[in-house]
């Protein structure tokens, strides 16, 4: 995708929230105006106390109906009341800014989360296999979390600060043109230097976040592979590798943080020096009678007021490279290609296969180019067969199921279902022809009905209850307060129940091909017995491919495919050997 497409994606929520953006702009302008008004009021007050000079004298004269002294007291009282009212109003406006900014943040970022999540789901399985675990989650929450901070506070701070700077400079030009010229040149130079330093620092932060994501993925994978690591006594090796990567991350973070803060700290120091210069110059002008005490206070207040937004800008521009890096990492997902180099949806084709036979013709596949899992694999499985796939971890058992399901595309050769390549079938119809059961089936935080039907309304209550009776879950569903409409809580659903829910959905659909990947690994013997019975009774004519955990399942297989040491051994007469499956050491299924 093109770089501008993220902006196109954000266009919809921007237009949807245009009223909030307009309100935010008006409120920011009002807050900046109040910030400029407060020093003006105090300047008049100070001149009034110091002998009724400048604007205080004019206001006192206007209010001097009871004498000049009474007029000056009225002017001072008016200044005090006006100042208190302006302070309270400014606080209310600031709170409203925060409120609107937070709401904008949620709306904009949730829209981007959904779009990014959908984009991630559009990639083929091998794209996910080649990506570090945790990387996508970090993009969804880590990077978009930074954008959330941008919309909720950073954008407000930057916009408000720039408005305040502009207002202060205008006020300087109107009241003290020489100071206006001085601070205009200084402010323009500082802003230019801020902007010029963003690009190199953004590259440093992107490198740091990429390393952090890679480390997060390695950490997750190491935890998931604990059994293998412990069995091979690789704990020390893994710990040494993690220590090296943590060291690299620390150095990258230190470099990005130091260089990111260095220019802004220098700019802030320069501004402080300019404020000191203005102070001494103001003292000189008071001594020559060309400036009142209130005028000096006003200049110093505006210089300080100019200091405050630059302090905010310093902080936010220091964070800006992180936001830029987050946008670039998000864009990488949008620009990512499917592994076959195509982003277009599969063109309309045949609805469903004529039969449920499976044939691999010279299939080669690997998640990485340098680590093939299958090489020129060729074999045929007749329709209605029950196939048990065996082999040690990493031999390619699950990969065979994923290729049959069409989750992965062969890099060479063809996978044929019903005599035709998978690409010839219409995708949605083909998906309904197969059913895939994982080791840990996902449980939706939704109703029991939607969990079983997958939001397909063609299944009646009678059909659902019949399927539940066959899997032994009818009594469990009846015990729920709302029955089929009960909303499931994934954390409260046991591994056995989750597995039986998946098999109930399979019974409902009566698929032509049923794929089960280590379905028996985490369940008890009672649940395993129920599932074995289902395969014997409910799936007559269905082609079943099983990857079982240590051969726990008692199902009688027509074909046993053993993937071991690079060879596929056919242990039954009706398994036609036409090639071999090659195991690549170091690959994990």
Automatic annotation (TrEMBL):
Annotated GO CC locations: plasma membrane
Domain ABC transmembrane type-1 residue range list: 22-310
Keywords attached to this entry: ATP-binding, Membrane, Nucleotide-binding, Transmembrane, Transmembrane helix
Cell compartments where the protein resides: Cell membrane
Molecular function as annotated in GO: ABC-type oligopeptide transporter activity; ATP binding; ATP hydrolysis activity
Transmembrane annotation, as ranges: 21-42, 72-98, 144-170, 176-195, 265-287
Pfam families (alphabetical): ABC_membrane, ABC_tran
Membrane topology (UniProt): Multi-pass membrane protein
Span of domain ABC transporter: 358-584
Entry protein name: ABC transporter ATP-binding protein/permease
Organism in which the protein naturally occurs: Candidatus Eisenbergiella stercorigallinarum
Taxonomic lineage: Bacteria, Bacillati, Bacillota, Clostridia, Lachnospirales
């Amino acid at each position: 995708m093109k770089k501008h497409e993220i902006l196109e994606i954000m266009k919809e929520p921007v237009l949807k929230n245009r009223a909030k953006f307009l309100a935010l702009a008006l409120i920011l302008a009002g807050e900046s105006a109040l910030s400029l008004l407060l020093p003006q009021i105090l300047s008049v007050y100070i001149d009034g106390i110091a002998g009724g000079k400048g604007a205080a004298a004019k206001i006192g004269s206007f209010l001097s109906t009871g004498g000049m002294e009474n007029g000056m007291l009225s002017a001072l009282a008016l200044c005090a009341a006006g100042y208190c009212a302006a302070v309270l109003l400014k606080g209310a406006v600031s709170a409203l800014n925060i409120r609107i900014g937070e709401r904008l943040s949620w709306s904009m970022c949730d829209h981007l989360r959904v779009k990014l999540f959908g984009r991630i789901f559009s990639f083929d399985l091998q794209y996910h296999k080649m990506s570090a675990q945790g990387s996508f989650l970090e993009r969804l929450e880590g990077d978009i979390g930074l954008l959330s901070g941008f919309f909720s506070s950073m954008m407000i701070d930057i916009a408000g600060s720039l408005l305040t700077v502009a207002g202060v400079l205008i006020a300087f030009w109107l009241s003290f043109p020489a100071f206006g010229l001085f601070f205009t040149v200084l402010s323009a130079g500082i802003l230019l230097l801020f902007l010029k330093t963003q690009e190199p620092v953004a590259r440093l932060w992107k490198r740091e976040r990429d390393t952090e994501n890679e480390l997060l993925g390695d950490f997750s994978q190491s935890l998931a592979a604990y059994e293998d690591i412990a069995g091979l006594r690789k704990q020390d090796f893994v710990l040494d590798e993690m220590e090296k990567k943590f060291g690299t991350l620390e150095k990258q973070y230190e470099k990005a943080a130091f260089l990111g803060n260095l220019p802004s700290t220098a700019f802030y120091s320069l501004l402080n020096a300019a404020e000191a210069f203005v102070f001494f110059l103001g003292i000189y002008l008071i001594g020559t009678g060309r400036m009142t005490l209130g005028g000096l206070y006003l200049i110093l207040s505006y210089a300080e007021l100019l200091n405050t937004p630059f302090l905010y800008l310093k902080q936010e521009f220091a964070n800006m490279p992180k936001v830029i890096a987050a946008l670039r990492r998000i864009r990488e997902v949008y620009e990512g290609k499917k592994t076959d180099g195509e982003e277009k949806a599969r063109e309309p084709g045949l609805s469903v296969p004529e039969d449920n036979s499976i044939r691999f013709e010279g299939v080669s596949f690997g998640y990485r180019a340098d680590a093939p899992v299958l090489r020129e694999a060729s074999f045929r499985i007749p329709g209605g067969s029950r196939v048990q796939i065996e082999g040690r971890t990493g031999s390619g058992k699950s990969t065979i199921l994923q290729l049959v399901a069409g989750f992965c595309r062969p890099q060479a050769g063809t996978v044929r279902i019903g005599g035709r390549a998978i690409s010839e079938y219409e995708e949605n119809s083909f998906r309904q022809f197969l059913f895939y059961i994982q080791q840990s089936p996902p449980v939706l935080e939704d109703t029991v009905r939607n969990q079983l039907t997958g939001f397909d309304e063609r299944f009646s209550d009678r059909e659902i209850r019949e399927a539940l009776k066959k899997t032994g879950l009818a009594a469990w569903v009846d015990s729920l307060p709302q029955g089929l409409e009960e909303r499931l809580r994934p954390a409260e659903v046991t591994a056995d129940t989750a597995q039986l829910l998946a098999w109930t959905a399979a019974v409902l659909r009566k698929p032509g091909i049923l794929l089960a990947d280590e379905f028996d690994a985490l369940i008890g013997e009672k649940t395993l017995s129920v599932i074995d019975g289902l395969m014997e009774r409910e799936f007559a004519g269905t082609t079943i491919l099983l990857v079982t955990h240590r051969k726990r399942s008692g199902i009688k297989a027509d074909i046993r495919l053993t993937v071991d040491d690079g060879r596929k051994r056919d242990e039954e007469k009706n398994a036609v050997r036409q090639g071999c499956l090659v195991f690549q050491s170091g690959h994990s299924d």
